[in-house]
Amino acid sequence: MKHVYLSDDCEVGIYLVPDAVADDLSAYCLQFLKWISTSDRAREKYTVKWKGRDTLSYYPEAAFIEWLNTDMFPGENARFVSLAKEPISDEDTVPWFNF
Known about the structure:
6 strands; 4-stranded mixed β-sheet; 4 helices
């Protein structure tokens, strides 16, 4: 398991994910975004009514971790560790994806 940074234009969270995910974080995040926008199961879970319309509403990081643990790596335990306490520097080598 390795650390990654995940965010959605807000605070940056530090997460522990399987090595394969950390090593190719962008590919897994893009695969997740495709899944959440096309999967019937995702639509059932993450769609809400807003102004009379069905709207995809989800918390990207939490939904991503749940998807990893449920669909991709059920034997692993990807999880939130903490919020990043300082701004992430350009020299930081931890993989980062902003949803």
